[in-house]
Amino acid sequence: MSNGALLHIDSSILGGHSVSRQVTSAIVSRLTAADPSLKVVYRDLAANPLPHATPASMPADHPLSGGQGDAASQQALDDFLAADIVVIGAPMYNFSIPTQLRAWIDRILVPGKTFAYNADGTVAGLAAGKRVIVALARGGHYGNNAAAAAGEHAETYLRWVFGFIGITPEFIAADGIAAGQRDAALEGALKSAAALKAA
Known about the structure:
globular, alpha/beta, two-stranded antiparallel sheet, five-stranded parallel β-sheet, single chain, 199 residues
């Protein structure tokens, strides 16, 4: 038994109507069925949002906080650092991620904790070894050959952010939700979640 930790993050503002929430739930169900010893910590960023970043609202571990920091922000960082697996629901709003999710990311990108600069100016990701699985929900289609591909700033941003701290994230996408393909997109994403590699 692994006795690992799984951090489950939702950020959709749509509650029960949310596609990304249904997909993250399916992902977590798949992983916990495969490993019942996983300890799950859940955070709903829409119901309990972190404030936009200021020096006072950053984790105490962040250099900007001056060692004081915000308890909720520090808890968000600690939960991320303790997690072996992170499952994130990321709907695309106005071509990017929700502001609630961005505020959470501001808490986990902390110099000396999740990344560091080497003497030559290159970046060392300090969070390598974690598994990050993102459930994307997008209204249109944004593949490499799609006309709107240049407007996709959700998956591209998250790939860069997590790569910066040493993680290669996995993505399960439900596309075309606002283009009359919601049911098919959700069905496909749920199938991908059910077939997800457990370890």
